[in-house]
Each structure stands twice: as structure tokens, then as C-alpha cells.
Amino acid sequence: MPIKLNILQPVREKTNENIIYRDINLDVNTGIVKGENANSAENLKDLNTSVNFEAIKNSLINLITTFPGQKILNPEFGMNFGDLLFLPVSRARARVIGETITNTLAGFEPRIQLTEIEVISDLELQEYELNITINIPEFNNNPLNLKGRLNRSGFYSY
Fold it and tell me: Which of 115, 116, 137, 151 has the most CB atoms in a 10 Å sphere around its CB?
């Protein structure tokens, strides 16, 4: 005879029907404690989450900052820039980085349509400025713009 344990089911407030995508916030901090009684189920802590546009933006940042092989259960996940970030910055390398991003997004992110990618080589700072514009069909093709800098240390969005 199976036993049903209610303690294994997550306690959540009713979610908004407009939430399509949910992801853990990249800052990984706990949510707000609710309720008055310390033993109440409403006092359970949970991780903060990003929803919809922010969740997709987190996914894109995750793809750019992950090197293939870092995720054990999905070893192909991520972008392989090879030695491009450790060689002198050039326009030709910026083009290769743009192609790598385009191919990886097409393979790993079916929720989006890439509309424009701009990789600008900054010779003085020895880094690349990324400007990625995507459309999200689930949200009436509303555009999402991701800007950041890519260098030897990693990717930093702003």
C-alpha cells in the first residue's frame, strides 16, 4: 500500500498565471520569510527566482559563462571560445566569437529567436563588447537585449 506524504510537496503561494519561465536567480539568495508562527509552513525559505524575461536572460548568461564539460550531466552545454580570449583582440576573432554565440544559441535555446548579435573588439582594453538582441515568441516577439563585456576573466553583463 503506497503512503502519501504531504511534507514532500512544496509549499508555494498561488503563482501568477503570466509566469511561463522560472529559473533560480543568479545571485542565489534566499527568499523572504513569511508567516507569524516559527513552526508554520509559511515560514519555509526558498531561493529567489527570476521569471520570464529575467529567466531567459539568466539562461543566456549561463550559456556564455559555461565552458563545455563543466556541467557533468550535460557536457556539451556552454560556449567554447577556445584560446580566442587569451589571444590579442582583433576583428577577425570578434567575428568567430559572434559565430560561436550564434551557433550555440541556436542549439541550446529554442525559446528565443536571435535577431542581431554585435561583437565589437576593444583593442585598447583587450576585450569584446557584446550586444545580443533576441525575440521571444512566447511573449509576442518582444525583444530582449543583453549587453556585456567578454574578456579573459569572463563575461560581465550590464
Answer: 151
